[in-house]
């Protein structure tokens, strides 16, 4: 098997649909909730979720630890999703699903056992506990702390217009508006594609430390693509909008704005010339360009590979790893953002974690297992795609923190190079730190000015070099939404102010 | 077969709940995944699951829903949701389901002995691969070894009278390792996937390749930015084939979002290039008797001696294009709508020994790894990160990392001037070693 490549994408539509459906243990809505589930309250109110009987949870945890092991957990999940596709001005397909299941995890030393059940019955969960417990066979038996009533936790989001109060017509309406705005933008827009996705994900978590939590969180994801045709070429532009919020998202950023941003890119790139090849200075516009640090630095700072002593930043805590102007943060508590989560998928409260401060390595992102292995705090980064997966260290909203340069000055002081306005996505080898990402929209920089658009080029480098080569950081921090893949998918944001990187290898087709 | 009857009953139920036509896709799965690190078991995950997807049509409008609860009440609820949701869609006369046209006979998709293989044997396979890879003195750390297996049964029925099923199995194991030298760190890995447990290659073979792929990239050098020939190792065939796949997707072609749109019958590549899509190969990892909506799979020539012969279609897109489905409806499982995708998609073997291709190249890049998206299926542009070996005087001289390569699909397809005889059909998206006459390489 290849070393796991970790990637982030700004989500091509097909992938997006696959991701959203992947592993969807989906049951019909409404009456399918089993009697064990005392309630499944739709989102909108903090603390609502899949509540399970504490006595049952205690019995499952005890069973999971019956052969040994120091930690056991039950994670229950219920997800209602809607996915609609409009393409070529037609509503092509609509998908509806409710998925539900629960997983049992046992940790014994460095070992993890995991099994899940689709039916949330005592019998099925006990069977899962038995399977998960085999990993701990023969180790010391630890007495679990019993859970009582679910505890209250802070929530990092507000909902004005709950998704469950939205009629399907309103979903279709925002899609139609985006489609029309894209087509109206320019006669060279030949086609638009609009994907709408929403879900309400309710979670319940109980573990042998006595933690018992329940919540639910809505998610909206809106993607517009537009095909520009002209000048003997084609370009598919893309723009995305995603938040954990209610339907008010579309009042704050209108479907028209999303569509116009996308169509503008499609038209601008019809004039693109061949990109240059070789090493050059790169200025990255604020926003989703933060995928650079997500890949290049974020993945290598996830603590699982550090605990295994194979990660690129192993043993570098407290050392100077980046330039003085470089500060990087992962923060899962920013209200309503796509990477935000009230508590991570193993019950740890999310928070602002400064990973690199003024160039000095300050922290890794941990989950329960890696925090234990490294003797570090839990940072709230233990996440999972669904109940089909056990949690691993993942990013949330990851960004280069605001600097003090004016973005216009950064550009003006760059004599020549590449101005990257937006990126598609990229990947990294977390062991060697070698990364790549692909430009969606880029321009030449000539005499401190953004000039000719150039075709999508790949940027490559090594994480250690790139963070040392950032020499200017703007004051215009912004974010973009993405899907991060690391064997399982996670919703993330990546962000940055306008930054300049001195000397990065650009894969253009022109010498 | 209980599930077979169930799918047909559910089709009837969809019709009685307001659908004018309907398809029911049901699958059941069993999965096992084991990870080992430094000789110790690290994780075990086991699961079995099932679910059903309903594709329903009302006045040529399509709705879809899925459920993993096969109780009557929840199935009813899923059907109702799909029928309701369909009402909101745009009518399309091409929203049709396939008729029953039988199945392709494909041998060796299911290993009846797989589940009976002892758990300890499976763990030992991963452990042994790791142990052997670590026994190479140049290898300093393990990135982990693993074993995984799955069994799936698919049941499909629709209101045109189509009803069929098959089952398949798969198993794999592999290891990833790290080679270190001073401050340098290089990772590598290898795995093997087969339908049958007995067909898996030896742990020695996997371990040796994993170790080699890590240590051979130590002490890389940089080269200058230049145009030079590039030899593609079979490991990087995907970077050429992936973009072609996107461009021969029949739906993208109809939308004009493909660099190959409108070019059937034209010469799009050099004479020696033939590309096949094959869903019928015995024991093939990408083989099946029918596609994601029940159409028999085929072995098709997509590019024949440089001439583009056709695109890939599912039933709906084929109806719109006025052609027959090519058996390329792809489906990730019960929870996904049929899309369009390949089976085993590969470049036919040429007649050169791979060593002779290197020997015939005085100066150039032997490409072992490409990062990025490969060829853009819309524009045909290609750009990626590259690593491999630099060739001097017909020999692999030193490893190179951190390079970029760029070209266009047109230049690449018309620039293939040497084709190896080393095609391995145990891979599903592959090619023999081949050379492209010239590409832009970005270095220092």
Polypeptide structure, described:
The complex is a heterodimer of chains A (511) and B (444). Chain A has 511 residues and is α+β, with helices and mostly antiparallel strands. Chain A has 2 domains: 33-271, PmbA/TldD fold (2-Layer Sandwich); 277-507, no CATH class. Chain A is built from 11 helices and 25 strands. Chain A has helices at 13-21, 54-64, 122-133, 168-185, 249-252, 255-268, 291-298, 303-307, 368-374, 407-412, 463-468; strands at 6-9, 26-27, 37-40, 50-52, 71-87, 90-108, 111-117, 189-207, 212-230, 233-243, 277-284, 328-331, 352-357, 360-361, 382-383, 392-393, 397-400, 416-428, 434-446, 449-454, 458-462, 470-473, 478-485, 489-496, 499-507. In chain A, the strands form 4 sheets. In chain A, strands 2, 5, 6, 7, 8, 9 and 10 form a 7-stranded antiparallel β-sheet that branches. In chain A, a hairpin with a 2-residue loop joins strand 9 and strand 10. In chain A, helix 2 (54-64) runs parallel beside helix 3 and helix 4 packs parallel to helix 6. Chain A is globular and about 70 Å long. Chain B is an alpha+beta fold and 444 residues long. Chain B has 2 domains: 2-215, PmbA/TldD fold (2-Layer Sandwich); 220-444, no CATH class. Chain B contains 9 helices and 19 strands. Chain B has helices at residues 2-16, 72-86, 119-134, 203-215, 237-247, 250-254, 315-321, 354-359, 409-413; strands at 21-37, 40-58, 61-67, 139-158, 163-181, 184-194, 226-232, 275-278, 299-304, 307-308, 329-330, 339-340, 344-347, 363-371, 381-392, 395-408, 416-419, 429-430, 434-442. In chain B, the strands form 4 sheets. In chain B, strands 3-2-1-4-5-6 form a 6-stranded antiparallel β-sheet. The N and C termini of chain B lie far apart (64 Å). The mean pLDDT of chain B is 95. The interface between A and B is large, with 92 and 90 residues.
């Amino acid at each position: 098997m290849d070393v796991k490549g970790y990637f982030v994408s700004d989500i091509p539509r097909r992938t997006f649909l696959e991701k959203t459906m992947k592993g969807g243990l989906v049951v019909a809505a409404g009456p399918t909730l089993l009697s064990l589930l005392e309630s499944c309250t739709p989102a909108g109110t903090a603390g609502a979720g899949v509540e399970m009987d504490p006595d049952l949870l205690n019995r499952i945890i005890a069973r999971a630890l019956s052969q040994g092991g120091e930690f056991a957990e039950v994670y229950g999940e219920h997800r209602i999703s809607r996915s609609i596709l409009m393409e070529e001005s037609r509503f092509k397909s609509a998908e509806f699903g409710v998925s539900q299941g629960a997983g049992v995890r046992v940790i014994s030393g460095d070992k993890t056992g995991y099994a899940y059940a689709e039916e949330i019955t005592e019998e099925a969960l006990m069977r899962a506990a038995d399977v998960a417990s085999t990993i701990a066979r023969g180790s010391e038996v630890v007495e679990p702390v019993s859970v009582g009533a679910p505890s209250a936790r802070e929530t990092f989001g507000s909902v004005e217009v709950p998704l469950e109060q939205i009629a399907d017509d309103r979903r279709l309406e925002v899609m139609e508006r985006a489609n029309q705005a894209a087509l109206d933008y320019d006669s060279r827009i030949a086609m638009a594609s609009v994907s709408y996705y929403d879900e309400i994900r309710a979670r319940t978590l109980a573990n042998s430390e006595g933690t018992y939590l329940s919540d639910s969180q809505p998610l909206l994801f809106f993607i517009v693509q537009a095909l520009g045709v002209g000048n003997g070429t084609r370009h598919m532009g893309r723009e995305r909008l995603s938040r954990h919020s209610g339907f008010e998202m579309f009042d704050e950023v209108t479907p028209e704005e999303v569509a116009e941003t996308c169509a503008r890119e499609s038209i601008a790139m019809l004039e693109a010339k061949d990109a240059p090849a070789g090493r050059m200075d790169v200025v990255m516009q604020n926003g989703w360009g933060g995928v650079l640090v997500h890949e290049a630095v974020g993945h290598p700072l996830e603590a699982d590979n550090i605990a295994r002593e194979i990660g690129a930043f192993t043993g570098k805590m407290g050392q100077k790893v980046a330039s003085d102007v470089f500060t990087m943060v992962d923060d899962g508590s920013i209200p309503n953002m796509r990477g935000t989560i009230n508590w991570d998928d193993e019950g740890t409260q999310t928070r602002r974690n400064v990973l690199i401060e003024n160039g000095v390595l300050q922290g890794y992102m941990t989950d329960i297992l890696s925090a234990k292995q490294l003797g570090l705090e839990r940072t709230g980064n233990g996440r999972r795609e669904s109940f089909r997966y056990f949690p691993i260290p993942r990013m949330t909203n990851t960004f280069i923190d605001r600097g003090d340069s004016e973005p216009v000055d950064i550009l003006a002081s760059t004599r020549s190079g590449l101005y990257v306005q937006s990126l598609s996505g990229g990947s990294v080898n977390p062991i060697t730190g070698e990364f790549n990402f692909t430009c969606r929209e880029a321009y030449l920089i000539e005499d401190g000015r953004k000039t000719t658009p150039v075709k999508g080029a790949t940027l490559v480098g090594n994480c250690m070099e790139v963070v040392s080569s950032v020499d200017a950081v703007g004051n215009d921090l912004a974010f973009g939404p993405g899907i991060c893949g690391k064997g399982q998918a996670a919703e993330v944001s990546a962000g940055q102010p306008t930054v300049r990187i001195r000397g990065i290898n650009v894969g253009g087709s022109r010498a | 077969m209980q599930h077979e009857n169930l799918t047909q009953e559910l089709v009837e139920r969809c019709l009685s709940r307001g659908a004018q036509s309907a398809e029911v896709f049901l699958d059941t799965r069993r999965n096992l995944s084991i990870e080992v690190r430094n000789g110790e078991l690290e994780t075990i995950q086991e699961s079995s699951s099932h679910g059903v997807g309903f594709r329903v049509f009302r006045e040529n409008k399509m709705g879809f829903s899925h459920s993993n609860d096969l109780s009557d009440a929840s199935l009813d609820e899923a059907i109702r949701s799909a029928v309701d949701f369909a009402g909101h869609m745009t009518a399309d006369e091409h929203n049709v389901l396939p008729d029953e046209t039988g199945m392709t006979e494909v041998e060796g998709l299911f290993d009846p002995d797989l589940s009976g293989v002892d758990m300890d044997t499976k763990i030992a396979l991963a452990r042994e691969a790791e142990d052997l890879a670590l026994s190479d003195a140049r290898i300093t750390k393990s990135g982990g070894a693993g074993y995984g297996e799955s069994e799936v049964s698919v049941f499909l029925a629709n209101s045109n009278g189509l009803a069929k099923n098959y089952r398949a199995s798969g198993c794999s194991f592999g290891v990833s390792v790290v080679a270190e030298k001073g401050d340098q760190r290089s990772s590598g890995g290898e795995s093997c996937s087969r339908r049958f447990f007995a067909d898996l290659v030896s742990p020695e073979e996997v371990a040796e390749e994993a170790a080699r792929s890590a240590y051979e990239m130590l002490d890389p050098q940089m080269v200058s930015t230049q145009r030079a020939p590039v030899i593609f190792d079979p490991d990087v065939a995907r970077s050429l084939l992936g973009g072609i796949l996107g461009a021969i997707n029949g739906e993208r072609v109809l939308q004009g979002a493909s660099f190959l749109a409108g070019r059937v019958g034209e010469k799009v590549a050099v004479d020696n290039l033939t590309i096949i899509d094959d869903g019928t190969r015995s024991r093939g990892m990408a083989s099946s008797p029918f596609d994601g909506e029940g159409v028999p799979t085929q072995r098709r020539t997509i590019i024949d001696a440089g001439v583009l012969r056709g695109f890939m279609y599912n039933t709906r897109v084929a109806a719109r294009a006025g052609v027959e489905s090519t058996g390329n409806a792809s489906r990730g499982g019960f929870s996904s709508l049929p899309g369009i995708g390949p089976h085993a998609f590969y470049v036919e073997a040429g007649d050169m020994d791979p060593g002779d291709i290197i020997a015939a190249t005085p100066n150039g890049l032997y490409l072992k790894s490409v990062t990025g998206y490969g060829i853009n299926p819309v524009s045909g542009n290609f750009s990626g990160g590259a690593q491999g070996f630099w060739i001097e005087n017909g020999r692999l001289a030193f490893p190179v990392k951190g390079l970029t390569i760029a070209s266009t699909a047109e230049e690449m397809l018309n620039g293939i001037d040497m084709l190896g005889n080393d095609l391995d059909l145990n891979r599903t998206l592959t090619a023999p070693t081949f050379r492209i006459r010239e590409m832009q390489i970005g270095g220092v």
